[in-house]
Structures are given as C-alpha cells and as structure tokens.
Amino acid sequence: RKEVEQDPGPFNVPEGATVAFNCTYSNSASQSFFWYRQDCRKEPKLLMSVYSSGNEDGRFTAQLNRASQYISLLIRDSKLSDSATYLCVVNLSGYSTLTFGKGTMLLVSP
Amino acid sequence: DTAVSQTPKYLVTQMGNDKSIKCEQNLGHDTMYWYKQDSKKFLKIMFSYNNKELIINETVPNRFSPKSPDKAHLNLHINSLELGDSAVYFCASSSTGEGEKLFFGSGTQLSVL
C-alpha cells in the first residue's frame, strides 16, 4: 500500500459545481495533514492544513478521519481558477519531511 | 523579491555531464530541501538541511551532492548525469517547528539527452 493515496483524476467539473477529493494514508502514527495545490508547470503551494475537528477556508473545507486514516477536501462553487492538481500531504511525528500523494487534477470548465 | 529562487529554470544536457542547480531563500528560514518530481508527477524528498547541517538524506545515488554554504543557500550538484535523472527539481524552505509549511522555488526542469 502506498504511503499516501489519492483519487485518480482528472476531475472535470463545470463552474459552480461542488467537488470532493479523498486521500488515505498508511501510517497510523502520522500527526499532521495538509492539502497543497500545484498549478500546471508551477511549484506546489500550501492550500490549507487539516485538523481533526475539520476546518474551512472560504469555499474549501478539509476533514480528517483518523480512525479510517482518511482525509478529504471539498471545494464548493468551483471557479475556473481552481483548476490545478491538489496534493494530499502527510507528516510523521518526529520527522521533518512531508510525504506527498501523487495528486488529483481538477479541471473546471465554463 | 522572490522568496525562494532557484536557477536555472531549464537545464538541457548530455548524459555523463556534471551540472549544478542553485537555490537561495530570503525568508530567514533555517531549513532547506531538495525535492524531485518525476514524469509521473510524484514529488519526493531528496535532502534536507537545517542550519547548514544535513538532516535528511533519502535513498539518492551518491552522484547527487548537496552543499549548503549558509542557511540561505542550498545547491545541488549532479555528477555523471543519466537519462533517469530527467525530472523537475524543486528547492524549498521552512522554519523550524513549521516544517509542514514549505515554500517552494519555481523548479528546475532537467532534461538529460
């Protein structure tokens, strides 16, 4: 089992749609979780952290289920500018490196 | 006033050559990294330096040698380049205690012919 697995893409959605990405991680000792965004031919950028209680940032909602070792990202009211690859990222306690998933590509069309 | 800058942006070279990629950050961070993103878009850590000291060295061929002259710079030298080295190499930095908030450079696209 891969350390961090994500939904295969691409996800093609129309503007205004709601889309959800899922991610599972294999190491139950993982302590912190994040979503990064990577535009085509650009560097990854931190989108948001994921907390056990769930957290929201505008149209973006992230949730964590430690029992199932599962992380999700929900994007409401999709915009054209949301088109990118979304990377699920996990950090082990005591380590200073992040483990990245392969990413899920989102394409939002007019 | 780019936060993490790496050069060159593109590097095209022949097999067997030696090349270097430079990275500098002006964020005052004390930890710097090299990541490799292959053709399948998988982003993987190669090295991590904290205050010029190597703290992470993943399973990378010893043809790859990082060097950190000071905590704002982390360069990557690659000897005897191979076809399989073709990838995008990203430099990144973070602050101690905030290792999850990585700031990446714009990447160096390395093509080995």
Describe the protein in words:
The complex is a heterodimer of chains A (110) and B (113). Chain A contains no helices and 11 strands. In chain B, strand 9 and strand 10 form a beta hairpin. Chains A and B meet through strand 5 and strand 9 of A and strand 5 of B.
Which descriptors apply to this entry?
heterodimer; A: 110 residues; mainly beta; six-stranded mixed β-sheet; five-stranded antiparallel β-sheet; 11 strands; 57% strand; globular; B: 113 residues; seven-stranded mixed β-sheet; four-stranded antiparallel β-sheet; 0% helix
Q: How confident overall, as mean pLDDT of chain A?
A: 91
The assembly state of the depicted protein chains is heterodimer
> Which class of secondary structure composition applies to the elements of chain B?
mainly beta
Number of strands of chain B: 11
Task: Enumerate the spans of chain B where pLDDT stays under 50 for 5 or more consecutive residues.
Answer: none
Main sheet record of chain B:
7 strands, mixed
Q: Name the structural class of chain A.
A: mainly beta
Topology:
The complex is a heterodimer of chains A (110) and B (113).
Chain A: E1 4-6, E2 11-14, E3 19-25, E4 30-38, E5 44-50, E6 55-57, E7 60-65, E8 70-75, E9 84-92, E10 98-100, E11 104-109
Parallel strand pairs in A: 2-11
Antiparallel strand pairs in A: 1-3, 3-8, 4-5, 4-9, 6-7, 7-8, 9-10, 9-11
Chain B: E1 4-7, E2 10-13, E3 19-25, E4 31-37, E5 43-50, E6 53-57, E7 64-70, E8 73-78, E9 87-94, E10 103-104, E11 108-112
Parallel strand pairs in B: 2-11
Antiparallel strand pairs in B: 1-3, 3-8, 4-5, 4-9, 5-6, 7-8, 9-10, 9-11
Provide a brief overview of the structure.
The complex is a heterodimer of chains A (110) and B (113). With 110 residues, chain A is mainly beta. Chain A contains no helices and 11 strands.
